[in-house]
Every structure is written in structure tokens, then in C-alpha cells.
Design goal:
- The protein is an alpha+beta fold and 585 residues long.
- It folds into 3 domains: 1-187, no CATH class; 192-465, no CATH class; 517-584.
- It is built from 19 helices and 20 strands.
- The longest helix is centred in the last third of the chain and has 24 residues, at 544-567.
Amino acid sequence: MATAYERFNLHTTLEKFYIEACDEGADAVLAIDRVSNEMTLTEKKDVPLSAVTRPICGIMGTIRLVAGMYLIVITKKKNVGNLLGHAVWKAVEFDVISYKKTVLHLTELQSQENRTLLSMINNVLNTDGFYFCTDYDLTHTLQRLANTSHDFQEMSLLERADQRFVWNSNLLRELAAQPELHKFALPVVHGFIVMKPCRINGKIFEWILISRRSCFRAGVRYYIRGIDSEGHAANFVETEQIVLYEGARASFVQTRGSMPFFWSQRPNLRYKPQPLISKTNHTDGFQRHFDSQVLIYGKQTILNLVNQKGSEKPLEQAFAKMVSSMGNDMVKYLAFDFHKECSRMRWERLQILVDAVAETQDEYSYFMVNTEGKTVALQKGTFRSNCMDCLDRTNVIQSLLARRCLQSQLQRMGILNVGQRIDEQADFEKIYKNAWADNANACAVQYAGTGALKTDFTRTGKRTRWGLLMDGWNSMIRYYKNNFSDGFRQDSIDLFLGNYAVDELDGPSPFGIQKDWKFLTLPIIMVVAFSMSIICLLMAGDTWTETLAYVMFWGVAGAVTAAIILFNGQDFVDAPKLVQKEKMD
């Protein structure tokens, strides 16, 4: 199988970057001209002795900002385990290096804009969850890899990777254009990976959980909802649970993704903005989404966990109606009102859903190869789960379905004895529950900006009051981020993934749009008014009537101003500037 280089030295001169492959027997050097931007293959003897040298762990790619081209390299990595003998790494630290030696050629405005764009790139790089492997394809499931041809296996990692999950695909465009440079190109996935050696009945096996986030229609919670015209769903994540034992291997795949039609939920300072279903024709995008899902994963069972009353009800009804009108026997739909069913801490009622799909889950099966290398089971379908964000409720249900599958796999592999249950294995249960809760947190931080809700149930099997308190805290942080920092985060992702490209020609700055007078004036008036009402209370006048009049006046002034701000909520939130909103609807 084709591999990428594993170890590098970066040699820097005033004219060029020389990236030397330090693998045993390698004599390849990637030379990048810092003036012409040209990339060529050369040898170690061509590296000048005057170059400043330091080790790096890999190349993320290159990107053009206002000041010119930048090279992004991985400077620190951490081993998360071995998958079938291949080391899997987490990229921990990065460096973004300018081709240009100075920024003196920029105006003050351009320089400021360049700093903003640089901080956006760093914002994405600092979001935890980038993983890579130099001699194994992390973008594909075990079953997909088992069904590949010899020609596919001879391809470079870059060529054969599933483009949905290569987060640095845009950054690697220059390297991708030259096949001779592909061994320097490292496809990086974003999501979550945990690999744990486990013991049950004295038998040691490897338990692995991999979540791959799609880079198509990627973004943050309230700005990226539904699907695009190509049928790509927001917050689409493929999660694979793997078991390795004495040469045998098994996997179970599930997916999550936003409800796949055109809807939006713009932040507007309200705690829960009203979701809006677009009046456009949903059929083509909806059909494309499920055509691709069936092609990749086989039969589909949709588990829609949204509320069947209130603001979420129209979305559930629209989803059910579209599945019904599609008339595809390969796609089933099941609605389960998670919050209603589990109200008043009745979390044991989740078993109702698990039992309802048990027969379907047995039919879909899982992928398994025995110790002789023979395929004894194939997964013929997947559960596509969603709630509003595809984070909290979704993760809880996925962990329950994955446990049910694991029960069957471990018995079939001879790890569990007949009649034994996973939930009786205290040590393994702790590993299992914590890993799924960590998975929830990783996906939630990447999409919503905070850890997941309801993880106390995933970790302990019980809903606790402390868990409710933590959910309240995370909900407050989400509210702040969704309204006041997610525009910047959305711009960062769009820049990183190439949805927005910096033009070499001088054009109007996307950051030049000034907020109107309301943005500063009204919040100041509101703060002053409420402050004055408190001061009037503390410094009472001659009579209570006078004091009450002052308090009422300033209180009403503050309340009216707050109402005006709330009415014009969309003007006060941090909205994306790089990609027009219409494109994201």
C-alpha cells in the first residue's frame, strides 16, 4: 500500500523552504520557492548548509492570505494508538509560516486584514480533533477498505481518501496537482478518535471509536443548518466502532446529520431562535442526500429525535412528509420524541427506541472478518440519527445502538461467554461510557463551541442533578458563543476549507462593513438606564413616591431599549462576513 512520509526536517533560507523526508532510505526534498511559490522535488545534497533547520511532523498545506502565501506545518503530534499495526497520530501544535519575509508591502488596512485572516486560520487549527496516519487510510471504514481493488491500494493516500473527511483538502491543492509530491501530502481528518486496550474474561482486545466530520457544509451550529444544493447535510459525522481481537476485526458504522432539507435558524439574541423552513423546492437536494447515503451505506433508518410539539414540530412533520413522498424502500423513518419520552428523568424509556429498531439492527448487521481473514458478516444498512444539532440526544442514542451491536460482536468473537452481558462488565463499561461521552464533547465543541449536554447519562447510565447543572452552564456558554462569536468561527471554517478565497487583486475588504448607530448606542442606553434605576433605589429620594417615579422612569427606559434590541436581534449578533448568508441557507 502507498504511504506518505512520516518524519521531516524543515530547512528555511531567505529564498526557499526545503522540506526533507527523514524516513529510512528516503532522499526526497520538497523545495518551495518563497518568491514564485513553485514546488519542486529535489535531493538532500541541494539543501544549503546555511539553512535554519528544525524538525516537523507533517505538512497541512498552503493557503493564500492578503500578505501572500503561507505554509502550514504540524510541529507536535501525540500517538493515540495503533490501528491494525499502523500508528495513529493527533496533530497537537501547528505553525503558520509566511513565504514573504516582511509585510512592509501592505497598507495598514491590509496588514490588519491579514492579521484577522491569520487569527481565523489559527482558530480552526486550535479546535481540538485533527488526526492523521502516514500508512493507513483513516477516511474509510474497515468495510469500505476491505472491498477495494489492488489498483485502489496502490494509489497515494491523498488520491484514495474519501474527500468528505479530508479537512486539509483545500490546503493540499498545490501538492495534489503534482503526483510526484503526493508522499509529502498528509490527509488529515477532523473529529474524534479513541483507542483502548480492554480486558473481559481475561481476554485482551482493542476497542476503537472513530468519528469523522464531513468538511462539506461544515460550520457552526446556528449558521449552518439543513443541506446545500448538492445534498450535503450540516454537521454530518460518520462514527465507526471497531473491535480487534487475535486477528479478527469487526466494525459498526452509524451516521448523524442535520435534517436534510432547506431550513435555517439564524441567531437573533433569543435563547432559542425560531427555525424557518425555506419555501424553495426541497426535492432535489433531499433526493441527492439519500441517494448518496444509500450508495455509500446501504439501507437507511432515520431516527428523528426532535420534539413533536413547539418550534421543532414543523421540522419533524416536513421530514416525515418528504421521506414518505420519496417512496424509497431503502429509506425508513422513525420519529421518537426524546424529551417527551424521557421527561422527569425517565431515561430508562430510551430502551423503547432500542427495542423498536432491534429487528432492523439485526437485519443491517455489522462488518466482521474472522481470525482466518474470511469476511463472515457485512453491514447492509446504517442508522442516520438526528436531533436539532445532532449532538446531545443523537450521541446518547448512538451509544446505546453501538452497545447492542458490540454485545453480539464480542459473543461471536468468543470474548463474552454465553449469557454474559456487557453492562455487567464494570471495567469495560466505564471505558465504553466515558469514550462515548468524550465523543459527544468533541463533536459538540467543534460544532456548538461547548461540551455536549446529557453526558452524565452517557458516562453513568443515570441522569443526575449535577449533570443538569452542567447542562445549564454549557447552555449559557453556547448562548453567548452562538450570538457573539460564531460569525468569526464560521468565517474561520469557510476560509480554512476554501469556501472563501483571498483574491490577489485589491478588492473591497469584507471586514470593512461598519455596524450602524444602533449597535453601540442602544446597548449603552440600556446599561445606563438599568444602572440609573438601581442607583435610584439605593439613593432613595425624599419620598417613596419620588423614588418610585425615578425607578419606574429608568426601568421603563431600560426595558423599552432592551425590547428594541431584541426586536432587531440579528443586527446585534456576530454574523459571518466572508460568505454571503444566502449561500448558506
